[in-house]
Amino acid sequence: MTETNRQVALAARPNGFPKDSDFQILKGPVPEPGDGEVLVKNIYMSVDPYMRGRMNEFKGSYIQAFEIGAPMTGGAVGQVIRSNHSDYAEGDFVLNMNGWREYFVRPGDRQKDGMDLTKVDPSLAPLSTYLGVLGMPGLTAYAGLAEVGVPKAGETVYVSAASGAVGAIVGQIAKIKGCRVVGSAGSAEK
Fold first, then answer.
1. 189 in a domain, yes or no?
2. Which terminus of the chain is more exposed, N or C, with fewer CB under 10 A?
3. Which one is predicted more confidently, 127 or 189?
4. CATH of residue 109
């Protein structure tokens, strides 16, 4: 393959709001898959609020900081370009956490690093929804409200950050369950 693989890396730890100089574009060859591996080209990449915390120096958070100079990881949907694994065919679409890179190679078998590939079906919903309502934000909203909060019809559900990906979904689920929903969003200064 003669194409270039572009990847976004963190160049410096941002002080305040991230700026262009905090990132760098790494260019290199498109990797070749080995035995049991697949080559994926990302189509959609998610930019999520938790990523800002990962740009800071690690201070005992629930997730490691991004490494300076290394490609950033995060949710993405891509298409299998080449497969050397029986579970994946060329053309399959996959949800992955390999993030901000055009191409990557992964083992097709489950791994312990949480970066596994999950097939997604574009005939069920637009591919981008697997990064939103059908992805991590949707699962977070559902688990938090339906499994932990367990609202009942007629109750009032207050949603902070109701304009965000998770909050907007929480509000919709609460309405479906027959609840009165009150939401708040950040100020103009935010």
1. no
2. C
3. 127
4. 3.90.180.10
Query: 35 in helix, strand or coil?
Result: coil
Which residue segment(s) compose the domain that 116 sits in? Answer: 4-124
Residues 141-189 pLDDT 10s: 999 999 999 999 999 999 998 998 999 999 999 999 999 999 998 877 7
> Can you tell me whether residue 36 is helix, strand or coil?
coil
DSSP state of 141: H
Torsion of CA 136, 77, 59, 18, to 10 degrees: -110
DSSP state of 71: B
How far, in Å, CA of 34 to CA of 14, rounded?
36
Q: Which residues pair with 129 in a beta bridge?
A: none
For residue 50, which amino acid is it? Y
How far apart, in Å, do the first and last CA atoms of the chain sit?
45
